[in-house]
Design a protein that fits this description.
Number of helices: 11
Low-confidence stretches: 76-80, 354-364
Distance between the termini: 49 Å
Number of strands: 17
Organism: Bionectria ochroleuca
InterPro entries: ANL_N_sf (IPR042099)
Helix content: 25-40%
Radius of gyration: 29 Å
Protein name: AMP-dependent synthetase/ligase domain-containing protein
Length: 382
C-alpha cells in the first residue's frame, strides 16, 4: 500500500493532537479604529478549531451554491483554493487568474472590492469567529490519493512577463516540500524552547505559506508581522516579548533594513587575544575554505610576500585554493625581475621562515583570479 500523501491540513491535525496547548500562531490585533493592540496567541487546539469553523461555514455556503468537493474556489482552502494577494488590485488580472484556474467561485474582501462582479459565484469573506456554525456539519478531511491531485493554486508576481501566472501545487510537490522543510525548520539542537518564526509575506504568498506549513508540521509557532516588511522596532519587540527565534525575510527587505539602520557588516575579522584587545585578521573574503574542513588566512600569506619580496621581486600576490588540498600563491613579477624559476626559488626562500602579518589592502579580486586560473589549478591537483 502506497504511503499516505501529506498535506498542510493533515500535518496540522497531527500536531494539534500531539501538542494542543502550544502556541501555533501569534496574530496581530487591531482595534475598530485601526490601532495596533499587540499580538494574540492562538494555540494549536484553537487554531484547529478555527479552521474547522471555517470548514463548516464555507462547506455549507458552497453546497448552497451548488458547488461540490474538488471544485476550485479562489482564496479559501477546503476545495481547491486559488490564493490571490490583495496587492493584486486589477479586477481584470484577478478575473483572468480565476478563469485560468477553472474556479467556480471567489471569496473576496468586500471592504476592498465592494461591488465585485465576475462570471463566477462571488462570496464576501466573513469573520468566521462571529458566525454560528455549531449546527453545521464538519466535512471530512480530504486526503489526496494521486500524486497529481491539485492541493492549492498560487500565482506569480508577473515580474517577467507583466502578467501573473498560475502556479498549481500538486500533492506530490507539497508532500515533498513538507519533508524537505523539516531540514531547514528543525528544532534548535542547543535550545529546548519552542521555535518562533516570523514568516515572510502573507498566506497568499507561497513562501509565507510554506514557512507556516512546515512550522506547524514540526510544532513551531508562526508570528504574523503587522507590516510587510516588519520594522526593526517590531522585530525587537517580537524577540524580547514573544520569543522570536527565526526571521524569514526576502533579500530585498533585509537590504532595505540594513540601509535604514546603517548597521553595516563590513566583513572585517578580529580575534580577541585578551579581554578588550583585538587584533585585525583581515576580511571574511580573505579566508578560504580548503578541501578539508579548515580555513586559510590568505591575507597573511599575501602580506608576507609583499613585505619580503615587494621591493625587488613581486608587484602583486594573490593566494587562492578554495576547495583544494592546500593554498596556492600566484605572483606577478616585477618587470625587471629575472627568470620565473629563479624568482620562485627566491620567494620560497624568503617566506619559509615565520613572517609577521600586515593589513595592507590588495588590488585583486580573489574569486576572479581563482576563476581565471581554474584550469591551471585543476592540473596542479590532478
Amino acid at each position: 500500500m502506497a504511503p499516505e500523501l501529506k498535506t498542510h491540513l493533515t500535518a496540522l491535525v497531527e500536531t494539534a493532537a500531539r501538542t494542543p496547548s502550544l502556541p501555533a500562531v501569534k496574530n496581530p490585533k487591531w482595534s475598530k479604529q485601526g490601532v495596533f493592540e499587540g499580538w494574540e496567541t492562538i494555540t494549536y487546539a484553537q487554531h484547529q478549531e478555527n479552521i474547522e469553523r471555517a470548514a463548516r461555514y464555507w462547506s455549507n455556503e458552497f453546497s448552497n451554491q451548488g458547488l461540490k468537493q474538488r471544485d476550485t474556489i479562489a482564496i479559501w482552502a477546503g476545495y481547491i483554493p486559488v490564493a490571490i494577494s490583495l496587492r493584486l488590485t486589477s479586477i481584470s488580472l484577478v478575473s483572468d487568474l480565476v478563469q485560468k484556474a477553472g474556479a467556480k467561485a471567489i471569496i473576496y474582501e468586500e471592504s476592498v472590492f465592494p461591488d465585485l462582479d465576475m462570471n463566477v459565484i462571488c462570496l464576501p469573506a466573513v469573520d468566521i469567529l462571529s458566525v454560528q456554525v455549531d449546527n453545521l456539519p464538519l466535512p471530512e478531511l480530504w486526503v489526496p490519493t494521486d500524486n497529481d491531485d491539485i492541493i492549492l493554486n498560487y500565482h506569480s508576481t508577473g515580474s517577467t512577463s507583466g502578467i501573473p501566472k498560475l502556479v498549481p501545487v500538486t500533492a506530490r510537490w507539497l508532500d515533498f516540500g513538507l519533508e524537505k522543510l523539516d531540514c531547514c525548520l528543525k528544532d534548535d539542537p542547543i535550545s529546548e524552547k519552542q521555535q518562533v518564526l516570523a514568516i515572510n509575506g502573507s498566506f497568499c504568498h507561497l513562501s509565507g505559506t510554506l514557512c507556516a506549513m512546515g512550522s506547524h508540521r514540526l510544532g513551531h509557532c508562526v508570528v504574523i508581522s503587522q507590516a510587510i516588511p516588519p520594522t526593526q522596532e517590531e522585530i525587537t519587540t517580537l524577540v524580547n516579548e514573544h520569543g522570536l527565534t527565526r526571521l524569514f525575510m526576502f533579500a530585498s527587505f533585509v537590504t532595505g533594513m540594513v540601509r535604514k539602520s546603517r548597521d553595516f557588516h563590513t566583513g572585517d575579522l578580529f580575534v580577541e587575544p585578551a579581554p578588550g584587545h583585538y587584533v585585525y585578521k583581515g576580511r571574511n573574503d580573505d579566508w578560504i575554505k580548503m578541501m578539508v574542513p579548515l580555513r586559510c588566512d590568505t591575507k597573511s600569506i599575501e602580506d608576507n610576500v609583499m613585505d619580503l619580496c615587494g621591493t625587488d621581486l613581486v608587484s602583486a600576490a594573490v593566494c587562492v585554493g578554495t576547495g583544494r588540498p592546500s593554498p596556492v600563491l600566484l605572483v606577478e613579477p616585477l618587470t625587471d625581475a629575472t627568470s620565473d624559476a629563479s624568482v620562485n626559488e627566491e620567494i620560497l626562500r624568503r617566506i619559509t621562515p615565520f613572517h609577521q602579518r600586515r593589513t595592507a589592502k590588495g588590488g585583486f579580486q580573489r574569486q576572479a583570479v581563482e576563476r581565471t586560473f581554474k584550469v591551471a589549478l585543476d592540473k596542479l591537483f590532478a
